[in-house]
Amino acid sequence: MDVLSTHHSLPHTTHESSSSSAIDQEKLQLSAMEPIPLLTPYKMGQFDLAHRVVLALLTRQRSYTPAVYYSQRATAGGLLIAEATVVSDTGRGYTHTPGIWTAEHVEAWKPIVTAVHAKGALFFCQIWHVGRVSTFELQPGGAAPLSSTEKGVGPQMTFDGRLEEFSPPRRLTVEEIPAIVDDFRKAARNAIDAGFDGVEIHSANGYIIEQFLKDSANDRTDEYGGSLENRCRFALEVVDAIVKEVGGHRVGIRLSPFADYMDCHDSDPHSLALYMSTKLNDHDILYIHMIEPRMAVVDGRRVVSKRLLPYREAFKGTFIANGGYDREEGGKVIVEGYTDLVAFGRLFLANPDLPKRFEIGADLNKYDRMTFYSPDPVIGYTGYPCLE
């Protein structure tokens, strides 16, 4: 709840108007002293956060100029999650997205991480393999994209109205899967070597890990398919390998059990989410970052569904909710204990100083969908205005 905008009703009084004004002013001052829920401190494992506003990962397809973009959004004690960063040459699905599988990648990330740390922020690298969401042109040697299945992804509409086509994938053999797990492990090590404070495993949005998790995409009949336990095996093997490499205190994971991105959905998302939330406790990871189901609209405002509550209660670490929240909704779920932190995507994209705007109740810049993935290094990227 946004405590600063709460209206207080005064009892009927016979005092003069000047006295009433003094009372009103006193109440406003007391109200202003109350903390804004999203801006209260939080202890996330070994990390001390000054506020609960998290920059969600945002693919921008501008990997040639990210230093200014991230440093603009860094605040002392804030948590930033870098855009999805590819773990291997087979993991690419889009042009101009960053990688973390070579020594050159590590060196290129170092000054960006340094710029974020100079502002006092924490920086996690989200590590990513797109699986079947790719084309022959982006794969080494023009090979078929790798996946849990041979079923392809249907055409996807882009923000600028184009249909995006993907190439038919090749099903990974059981013998090939450990190599993909190891790609994630090495990427995590590289991220830490580049100076990142931790890594977030991208297990959402229809990419390779979710292609194993969800039964619409996983039609395997081996130990990686069929039952819920089998479909989750690959994801948990990736988690286990990374935890052993860099420590669970540096590891988060992103999940979207209720989403249907890239033709990837599940017939029982509740069981999937509860199983993963419970099993991840065995690996003692730092956080789960979960995408909220679509919010209902009531009287012109979106209403939080609270469908994530069972998984927040099942998981022992930090819980991050991501669902298109605003200042009021985000504060409300913090106060109610529904989540520990709230990740903001499009609002943070368009408002580099989002925590400051939340603090003073300033108007927000509107984001422009048409420039989300355009190549311009300024417009729609680093060109959104700040208050100062």
Automatic annotation (TrEMBL):
GO terms for biological process: jasmonic acid biosynthetic process; oxylipin biosynthetic process. Residues 38-362 form the NADH:flavin oxidoreductase/NADH oxidase N-terminal domain. Keywords: Fatty acid biosynthesis, Fatty acid metabolism, Flavoprotein, FMN, Lipid biosynthesis, Lipid metabolism, NADP, Oxidoreductase, Oxylipin biosynthesis. Residues 1-21 have a biased composition (Low complexity). Pfam families: Oxidored_FMN. Residues 1-24 are annotated as: Disordered. InterPro entries: Aldolase_TIM, OxRdtase_FMN_N, Oye-like. GO terms for molecular function: FMN binding; oxidoreductase activity. Its cofactor is FMN. The keyword Lipid metabolism applies. It comes from the Eukaryota. Belongs to the NADH:flavin oxidoreductase/NADH oxidase family. This is NADH:flavin oxidoreductase/NADH oxidase N-terminal domain-containing protein. It comes from Triticum aestivum (Wheat). The gene is LOC123066736.
